[in-house]
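Re: beginner question about structure tokens

> Can someone show what the tokenized structure looks like for a real chain? I only ever see the sequence side.

Sure, here's an example I had lying around. Input first:
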Amino acid sequence: MSSNSENSTVEREALPQCRRCHKLAMFCICDSIEPIKNRTSLLLLQHPQEQDNALGTARLTALHFQDAVLKIGLSWPSLSRALGRPVHDPSRWAVLYLGSVRVGRFNTDRAIVAIDRNGQMEIDQRGALADIEGVVVLDGTWSQAKALWWRNPWMLKCQRVVLGARWTSRYGQLRKEPRRDGLATIEAAAIMLAGLEGRPDIETTLLASFERMLAKYQDVQARAPELAPKPRGRRNYRRSRA
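And the corresponding structure tokens:
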């Protein structure tokens, strides 16, 4: 690492940080967040190496909901242990994990698609998603999300879902995804909870917050690039993030 890079890192670490979102104060938008009362529980599992405080959105996503849990780690013995409370029927939870599935080949216009054990589209989509009481979203690069999926076999007891987003991620050039259907965690959660609860206001609220965060980052990047360096092109699908 060059001395300039080392100096920039030291400068960033010395700047004030928000205790809620853990971002530098200059990137924080917490003052505009009012938690949404959600019917569908949200569990965000973040890979330990995905703690990008500048552009990451997992913690920001959790702050948007009254019923949301963020855990950082690689594996948990059960959904109940990961969530921190008993889950009597894991099949009523959905896990958002794209993997090698490409929604385009299913010839569907559904925003949320339930997938079976063979990676195929469930025949009864309405029935598969009718009683979902919670959603697990994996936060990390493509390979990190895959690691979380394989290291937590209890996820196979849940309903796997993927997203058929009608737009590309708002990250744009800030984070280059390997596939067009790669989304930020906050975008994936917005589509999932808005769709499951029939509340377009959830999607509108989360995407507006994401855009405010990106605008702040780009503003700092233009004024003081050493504090908001351009990320290296790497990303995953995450996320949906996962």
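Each token stands for a local structural state, so reading them left to right follows the chain. Helices lie at 3-14, 58-63, 79-83, 125-129, 142-151, 185-197, 200-223.
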